[in-house]
């Protein structure tokens, strides 16, 4: 399926109306099924869907590693797509413990979770020791803006990227949903054998608790975003041992938690 399509309309510019054309991002219903049973429905961009299936499976705790996913098949159901995931080993049995139904708007990453305990799950603290210089935070954000091919066409999608000091921005994934973009990134990294403890996740969106949880599950210790975090996201990052660098615009950013991973970020280092 296409990720975007042109739409004709009328634009008001320079004091007058004129015919205009704009590329619009596609948004489709994507079901994720495990061993023949539908588990979740997301509204997503129809690109990098295998990465989405792997990343969602990992960050939701449905599989412990990519080795537990035997196959991902994409089936066009007419009104949407079905990602049919075949699980190996004990992963199918664990699935019953985390039943979810996430049909709902792309702005919500907790839609349909069956209990408060599942929504507020405890995440093991991240122990990643990678540190970045302040200039690298700015460099990572600037690099991702240039690598958002779909957003440059549509101005309507989020992106998640993975940055390493020695290689720069090594992966970028885009989606109409910010949670989907991060799941795609985590899935792509896992499939490529990239250890996310070796760098930083960079996001174009605001930071909510689910994005912090997904980053922690991936083992990444630094999370950078162009927008501000919610209060609960800061609490979660503090508990999970994640360095939260947000409101990253130009050469400026704010550190909310665990500043030691940004060189000079701890005030006592410069006192």
UniProtKB/TrEMBL annotation:
Localization, UniProt: Cytoplasm
GO BP annotations listed: Mo-molybdopterin cofactor biosynthetic process
Top-rank lineage group of the source organism: Bacteria
One of the record's GO cellular component terms: cytoplasm
SUPFAM superfamilies recorded: Cytidine deaminase-like
Keyword Cytoplasm in annotation: yes
GO molecular function terms attached to this record: sulfur carrier activity; sulfurtransferase activity
Summary of the function given for this chain in its UniProt record: Required for formate dehydrogenase (FDH) activity. Acts as a sulfur carrier protein that transfers sulfur from IscS to the molybdenum cofactor prior to its insertion into FDH.
Family: Belongs to the FdhD family.
Protein name, per record: Sulfur carrier protein FdhD
Organism: Stappia indica
